[in-house]
Amino acid sequence: MRNSGRRTTTAAFGVILGFALWILLKPGGDYLAARVSNIASPTAGFSAAAACLYAGRRSTGAIRRGWTLIGAGMVCTATGDSIWAWYEMVLHSEVPAVSVADVAYLLQVPLTLAGIASLISTRRSADTVRTLLDGLIIAASFLYLSWAAVLGAVFRSGGENTLERSVLLGYPIGDVATASMVFIMLGHVDRDRRAALSLAGAGLLALALADSVYAYLAQYDSYGSGDLVDIAWFAAFVLIGLAGLRAARGSPAVRADVRDPWKLVALPYIPLACALGASIVVQSVRGTIEPFLYADTILLVLLVVARQVATLRDNARLTRRLESSVQDLQVREEQLRHLAFHDPLTGLANRALFHDRVQHAIAGQAREGASIGVLYIDLDGFKSVNDERGHAAGDAVLAAVAGRLQECARPSDTVARLGGDEFAILVEHLVEPGSAESLAGRIVAVVAEPIDFPGPQITVGASVGIAVREPGGDSASELLRAADFAMYAAKLQGKGRHVTFETHMRDAFATA
User: Most distant CA pair in the chain: distance in Å?
Assistant: First the structure.
């Protein structure tokens, strides 16, 4: 498929080159060059129309409408060329200054503009405003160029009558509108599918340029079939036809939310730069700038200022959105950090955080010299609650016990759920070992109080193991293990009580 596309493109540019060489070299003279142009132009025009209509048939929605309208515009242009050829080749007469061919040519402009507009969509009001301002800047810039090169001269010449003058003015004005829409379209092309629309844009720009040159030549009655301008018309048809074939294979879309900084920011200012360059040339050649160009210059300045204001507002909006996103990310990061180190049911510290707090307490103990204690708590009768009342009751018991443990502990203490029905409390800066035993006694008493739950009240107990570390004592793991041994001793002694670790427990439970 890709090789076929390349061969088609190569053949298309070969045809353009062959036609250009024929017009330039005129191997059969002016007469044959005119006849070749009379046949080649409508043939290429109808071929381009068929390709665009085919692309529309293979597309859907606004894309289908866009290519169909562009194809209809090409039908009008090709029809105009056919009428022109009929006058010269069949009737053997000059084409009137205003004829049916001009109607067909001018009909192409609104159809093409509507087609391009269908291919352009904006999803946010900010995009709509920016696109509108870009379009006005581009249109005003092209209008400046067209007036300086063609429109002004046509307007001042007046033509032989009002109708002829209107027709001649219609070509460059339509070209300004078409070129403006093409630039807007190219500023919003999906970068992954830009080939077809870029070819169509190049073809439409070539068509607009050829029409403007024709309007300039026509006012001096110096145009004839086979002139160099016919190359631009022929190339425009071939490029648009090639674009239709590309679109038929991929149905390219135009998306206004595609962020290409170069296109969205710089592209509207390319015509503006050309207009500024033209103003310098006009000033240097003519010595003055006529009122229309002066007014257009003021309009351009105002539009650029409005565009910059819109850009600043859009940037401020994006900055606020970015700040909001950063804040959301920070909140989520904090939530994830909390989930990583806290028990989701009770909100208490989990085993990892508790172990880390114990290590930090031991590190600080070397500097401060105070004792630290660890209370290891296991619930008595919790399994029967789960078995008889269900897991909802078990969760309610764990949440209630967690709250009671936090009420018993000091704000500086760390209360943790180690897993299942096992809890632990880190007590730092113990004034005396007896303080840990007093805390354990309160815990045993508080946990034993009934817990409200639908149905009969629930009662559980607590077995608490206490391990106290003096400066220079056991490591964090050994301290937790010692508290665990003491808790097992409390279980063996009848549950619902607290026991302080003694050295012989390590040997007894380690070998059990």
Answer: 125
The contacts of residue 169 (CB under 8 Å, 6+ apart) are: 151, 154, 155, 215
Phi and psi at 379, nearest 5°, equal: -80, 140
For residues 491 and 76, what is the distance between their CA atoms, to the nearest angstrom? Answer: 98
* End-to-end Cα distance, the chain: 76
CA dihedral 280, 285, 290, 293 (to 10 degrees): -30
142 strand-pairing partners? none
* Tens of pLDDT, residue by residue, the chain (512 residues): 556 667 888 888 999 999 999 889 888 888 888 899 999 999 999 999 999 999 999 888 888 898 999 999 999 999 999 998 998 888 888 877 778 888 888 888 889 888 888 887 544 445 667 777 777 787 788 778 777 776 676 666 655 566 776 776 777 777 777 777 777 777 666 655 577 888 888 888 888 888 878 877 877 778 888 889 899 999 999 999 998 888 887 644 444 444 455 555 666 777 778 777 877 777 777 777 777 777 888 888 888 888 888 888 888 888 888 888 888 888 888 888 888 888 989 999 999 999 999 999 888 877 777 789 999 999 999 999 988 888 899 999 999 999 999 999 998 899 999 988 999 999 988 877 688 899 999 999 999 999 888 888 899 999 999 999 887 777 888 999 999 999 999 999 988 899 998 888 877 766 55
> Residue 448's closest CA among 380, 383, 346, 394?
380
Q: Classify 370 as helix, strand or coil.
A: coil
Alpha helices in 86-148 (DSSP H): 100-119, 125-146
The residue written with tokens 């009737």 in the block is 91
Q: 370 vs 170, 337, 339, 362, 431, CA distance in Å? A: 95, 30, 31, 10, 7
Instruction: Tell me the chain's radius of gyration from C-alpha atoms.
Output: 43
Coil, strand, or helix at residue 375? strand
Q: Name the amino acid, one letter, at 22.
A: W
The fold of the 351-510 domain, in CATH, is: Alpha-Beta Plaits (3.30.70)
How far apart are alpha carbons 218 and 159 in whole angstroms?
A: 10
For tokens 């219609």, name the residue. 170
Distances from the Cα of 349 to the Cα of 216, 338, 362, 429, 444, angstroms: 84, 9, 18, 20, 20
Q: What is the DSSP string of 40-84?
A: HHHHHHHHHHHHHHHHHHTS-HHHHHHHHHHHHHHHHHHHHHHHH
pTM score: 0.58
Half-sphere exposure of 26 (CA within 13 A, CB side): 13
How far apart (Å, rounded) are the C-alpha atoms in residues 216 and 300?
25
